[in-house]
Amino acid sequence: MGAKKLSTLQLELLKIYSFNPSEEELIEIKRILGNFFADRLIRNVAMAINEKNISEDDLKNWLNER
């Protein structure tokens, strides 16, 4: 199995760790990254809902499926 190259994000995170951030700073970085990816997910879901003409009733029905 060949070695995989690090992504740009991984390389940037390694740079952050090289500054030896405190535990509090690491928690803040995790919060910022979590918010970034959560916002991105919400935007992508909203776009898909609009593009596919999914209604509020569709979403409610999906939530109640077993």
Layout of helices and strands:
Blueprint: H1 8-18, H2 23-51, H3 56-64
Number of helices: 3
Largest sheet: none
Shape: elongated
Listing every helix as H and every strand as E from the N terminus to the C terminus, the arrangement reads HHH
**Count of distinct strands:** 0
Low-confidence stretches: none
Computed Rg: 19 Å
What share of the residues does DSSP label as strand, in percent? under 5%
What features would you describe in this structure?
By secondary structure, the chain is mainly alpha-helical. The chain has a domain at 23-64. It contains 3 helices and no strands.
Structure at a glance:
With 66 residues, the protein is mainly alpha-helical.
Considering the chains and any ligands shown, give keywords for the structure.
mainly alpha; 74% helix; 0% strand
